Amino acid sequence: MHDFNGGIRPSGLFWVVQVPDDAVKITEDTVTISLMNVAVVDQIAFPGNIFLGSTGFPATLTLNMTFQKQGRPRNVRPTSASPISPFSWAGEMSDATYHGTFSVAYNDGKFSATGDFGSTASEQIFAEMGKERNGSFVRREDQDENEQGAAALQVPGQASAGVAEGQLSASATLPANSPKWRGKVPVEYLVH
Amino acid sequence: MKRAIGFAVSILGSVAVWAQAPPPEVFPVPISGGDVIPTTPSEKIDAYAPGPPAIGFDGLNVEPFLIENIKGEVAMGYTTGHATDGAGAGYQVVTDLRVFQGDYVGATSSFVPTRAHGTFVLI
User: Fold this and answer.
1) Which domain holds residue A67?
2) A39 at interface of B, judged by CB pairs closer than 8 A
């Protein structure tokens, strides 16, 4: 078994690599990614040594893949204010499919492989694409919306603070969405 | 006059050199939440697995990326496929690939919160 990934950063951010902006092309319905000779590591097994950081066999990856939007977009609103909740982000997401080709090679030349994925409907498991904002971008824009809403609703001679306060209270009473599946990682699907 | 022009050019040249200094690298910050990998001992990873619960994922509308304080385009998903190594052996491929492009607020090496633009791929 081989598990090629982008390694783990000192911050704890794992498997994520920064690439040039022009490696990704975005249109209304597609996202196309072209990576050439990106440094990765082969950690051989998953999840047995997932926490070994960037140790493993150094390798390079060349990858070409395309996401294709499917169906109508759905609006996602944050239903939790907790920073550790998986439901504290906002955006507009659509179901998607994706397919691509890749090649990997150890830096020492002892292993290499080429392959493809997602080329048939039966090879699609789940995909989505769209726009997302989280963290400070959600808090800042929600605050702006509340302030704008308060200004729009303000009656002459009436203080706006009460309106804004009421809206914030309304937000606070939104039903909390609990991460029901937290802790049940589908390990078999996370293998790279 | 010649000397004054020379001085002006020198000053402007210094400004130009100063202006060309590369901005500090802005390191993205991982999300605060995440799933727990059932290893021994169990470990939390700073990522969720969006997708239908019926096939074992965390659910729809679950945080799709791994970086906190982002605003932009995101795509993610899982597929299967096939690969062949240099010796001709075949492999089944399972992918979890995610991409984000847009603005983010990260931290410099001096731990200063800084807004930046970038493209990140989960491999």
Assistant:
1) 1-132
2) no
